[in-house]
Structure formats: C-alpha cells, structure tokens
Design brief:
heterodimer; A: 94 residues; Alpha-Beta Plaits; two-stranded antiparallel ribbon; elongated; B: alpha/beta; four-stranded mixed sheet
Amino acid sequence: MSEKGWKELEIGGRITEAGNAAKYKTGDWRTFLPDVDREKCINCLQCYLYCPDMAIEAKADGTLGKIDLDYCKGCGICSNICPVKCIEMKKEEK
Amino acid sequence: MTKNFIKPLTGASAVSEAMRQIDPDVVAAYPITPQTEIVMKFSQFVNDGKVNTEFVPVESEHSAMSACVGASAAGARAMTATASAGLALMWEILYVAASNRLPIVMPVVNRALSAPINIHCDHSDTMGARDSGWIQIYCESAQEAYDNVIAAVRIAEHEKILLPVMVCQDGFITSHAMERVDILEDEKVKKFAGELKLPFPLLDTDNPVTYGPLDLFDYYFEHKRQQSEAISHVFEVTDSIYKEFEKISGRKYNRVETYKIKDAETAIVALNSTIGTAKDVVDALREKGEKVGLLFPRMFRPFPAEEIAEKLSGLSAVAVLDRSETFSGTGGPMLADIKSALYEKESRPTILKYIYGLGGREINPAQIEQVFSDLKEVKKGKKVEQVVYLGVRE
C-alpha cells in the first residue's frame, strides 16, 4: 500500500475505488495457520463459505482448493466449522 | 417578483422560515425544548406541501444526526435542529459528521445541560461541542439567526470547507421572543443557496465510494490534518459569503462584531442576546462620556483569534462574560480563548473573568453596568484576580 500524504488523499477517509479491499493483505496478522488433512476432507466447502477473508478457494469442480496465505489471518473459523475436523490450526513458524 | 416582507417572528420561527426557503432535501429531527418550535413549524411546511423535503421523524437526536450523516453522504442537503441534552445525545455523531466532511447545517437553541434539569438558556451545550470539528456561529437576535442559517448553508457547502455548521441562538430569550424580522423573498434565498453538488455522493452508483471506513494509525492523522486545513479556509470563505449575503439582504455580518469599540478604553466580550442588552448599557454610558464598547465573536469555531487580539490589545481592561462553566477552575471557555489570543500581543488589556446567566438566570442592564464599573476600577489600578459569578446568590 502506498502511503499518500494528506494533500493527495480524498477528504474524510473516502475510498473512491470499488473493491480495493483486496489490496489489504490481512495475512500478516496471522499467528496460527490452517493445516488441511486432504485425506479426511469431504469437500463440503463449509470452510469456504465461512472464511471471513475469502482466503479459501472453491474449485470449479466443487472441491476444496488452495488457502491464500496473503489473506488468511489465522482466525480458525474454518477449523471450528469443519464437520469432519480435518483442519488443524498450527502455530506458524516465521 | 415578490418583495421582502417584515414578519413578527420568534427566533425559532425565523429559523423555520429560513429552512422553508432553503428547502433542504432531508430534515431529520427530534423535538426538544426550546428548539421544538423550529421542528414543529417546519414539519407543518412539509405537511402543507410548502417544501419538497423528506422529513424523517426520528426516535432520538443520535438518530437525527445519523440520518443527516447518511443523507448528506448520499449527496442531499441535510438539516436538523436541537438544544441541550439533544445536542449531548448527538455527540458521537457530531464528530462523524465533521470528520466525514458532511456540510450539515444545524440551528441550535442554547439551553443548559442537566443536572439539575433546566430548560433555560446558557451556552454549556454548544460550548461543550466546540471542538467537535463543527463551525459555530452565534446570533444576537431572531433576524441574525434567520440570516445566518441561510449564510451557513453556503459556508458549509463551499468546496474548500465541506464542514457542518451550528447556528446558535439563546433559548427562550431569542427563540421564544417575538421580533420584527425582515424575510427575504423566497426566490432570492433559493438562488443564493443554489444547487447542491457534493463530491462523491453515495447515490452516484456509476462511481461507487465508501464513506467511513476503518482508518488506523496509517491514515487517520492525515485525515485530521485535512480537517485543520479546511478550518484554515473558513474565514476567507465566510467573509466572501457574508459579502454576497449583504448584496441580497442589505445586512452586513462579520466574523467578529464590535460595538463602539474604536475609541473605547474598556469593553465587554459576550455572545448572543447578552450583546443586545449590553448595547443599551453602552449607549447610556456613552451619553455620560464613558469610553466603553463591546466585542461579539460571532464565529466561535474556528476562533478568530488574530482579529480579536487586534481589536482588544489596545484597550486598558476587558471583561469576558461566559454563559457556561468549564470546571477547569480557571473560568469559562471563551475566557481561555480570548486570553490565549492576546498572549502574543505586546500590549494586553487586564482581563476580568465573569460567569453569568447559568440555567437561564437573568442578566439585566444593571449587572452589565456593574461590570463596566468594575472595569473602570481596574483601569484605575484595582486588582481582581478571581472569577466573578455575576448574579449568583451568596
């Protein structure tokens, strides 16, 4: 994110560009990382539906895709909602 | 073309007339004494089809200001009115309005804050809101309230400003007293107010915009700096709008009003209706040859410090009359600003500190005369350091 000075910014904190939340990488907030056991996963995609950061991919064939670590902030909602408990939150080593 | 006409109006009704002529897109308001008459009369105009306004009868002042914030962000000309506890309940959203740079205009009828509960005039409501980022204009009479509500629309909406404005008048003393008010013709006001064109209205769906996003340590400071910048343009913009208003009304307004101060040795500084009372006293004292005058900071936020210092620095003694307490232990809010304005000046008058009229306690000519006589004593060398509570029973 480029950090503009007060003279260049829109007044009042207005954001005049639609859909720019993607520029805000929430991945660097993370302490815990979801670790998916693909063998146990039943591809119900509950994790995809519940992820608050749209960091979980659902593939066109209806199966679970990648987890985008640029946005996953390690909240653990996916792990909590998983009906077969195949997502474990593991402490991330940086 | 219709002509201007003179109407007998209370301060509150005069403001509703101004609002009728401005014909804002949205008015969201909640009634509270002594502002009620403004909203009551205006809602009648809505009912009678005299305005095109969308009137939102909200359940509280917090909602009134919130609805105005939403309407203004959508690109509408939004107004409300309040007093006392109503203003206090708006507090959170006052900052939201100013910080989002929404040019809402709000007539405020000054009334004391609880407790004990009191419906009468003092300035503790708007003085408490003085640092919320709103522009504040104070009015001596119903005429001034009418005129300044109209002017305020243009000040608020100016592209260099885009800040909300409070236009204050004294509860009951002004709001409920019938006066002769010169009402401009509707067309003149309509033309003066003009079409509102706000940048980035939410209703412009071709150009989507987000208002009020999370703004943390990385940007918040910059947005506050922008607000200070807008405030720094208020004087020049107000001067030009007051000049334009003079052309359509013949009535001249200044950020700092003075009365017979040019050759004065002593002066009183006060706000709103007290200035009217004090003018009579000044006239009477002038007839006796006493060199006395008045200063009225019509604009209190931003504070015209330089101009006030210029006008007061040559005087020998000045009394600042505050109609509210700060409980700082050092006197009222206006006193602090006046003293700070004079700090840089090489020659400074002695300043007497008064707090008066709390909860609607009457201020009469005899008391004003007493203040001038105190000033005279000080001019002769008497020392008075403490805050004087004018009109309180010991």
